[in-house]
Amino acid sequence: MSSEIGLIGLGTMGSALALNIAEKGFDIAVFNRTAQVTRDFHSEAGDLAERITPTETLEAFVGALAEPRAIILMVPAGEIVDAQIDALRPLLGPDDLIIDAGNANFHDTNRRMRAAEGPFLGVGVSGGEEGARHGPSIMGGGQRTHWDRVSHILEAISAKYEGTPCATWMGEEGAGHFVKAVHNGIEYADMQMIAEVYGVLRDGMGYDAARIGVVFDRWNDGPLRSYLVEISGKVAGTTDPATGGPLLDVIVDAAGQKGTGRWTVIEAQHLAAPVPAIEAAVVARNLSSRRDTRADGEAFFGAAPKAMPSGTLEEHQLEQALICGKILCYAQGFTMISAASEAFGWALPLPDIARVWREGCIIRSDMLNDMADALTQNPAQNLMFAPYFADHLKASHNALREVVAAASLHGSAAPALASGLAYFDAMRTARGTANIIQGQRDYFGLHGFARLDDGSTDQHGPWAG
Ligand code: 6PG
Question: Does the predicted model carry a pTM greater than 0.85?
Answer without folding.
Answer: yes
